[in-house]
Design a protein that fits this description.
2 strands; two-stranded antiparallel ribbon; mainly beta; 74 residues
Length: 74
């Protein structure tokens, strides 16, 4: 068994939504045919950039696009 050096941890507060990885799982659904809400659906899971830390793995509330920043400017 070989030992390895772990990857460097990001500096700052680890993002709780992606656990510091910068990516989360997203699901996309597709229905074939002219009626997109009728019939059998196929679902595909794929990795996507975390919207809270913008893929950095480090959470900064000032950069979080999901928060209302307008209230902090007053």
């Amino acid at each position: 068994m070989e030992w390895y050096d772990p990857a460097d941890q990001p500096e700052g507060v680890q993002c709780e939504w992606c656990q510091g990885g910068g990516a989360v799982a997203r699901a996309t659904a597709y229905v074939a045919g002219p009626h997109p809400f009728e019939g059998p659906m196929e679902t595909v899971h794929h990795p996507a950039e975390c919207k809270h830390c913008r893929g950095t793995g480090i959470y900064d509330s000032a950069l979080d696009p999901t928060l209302e920043h307008e209230f902090r400017r007053r």
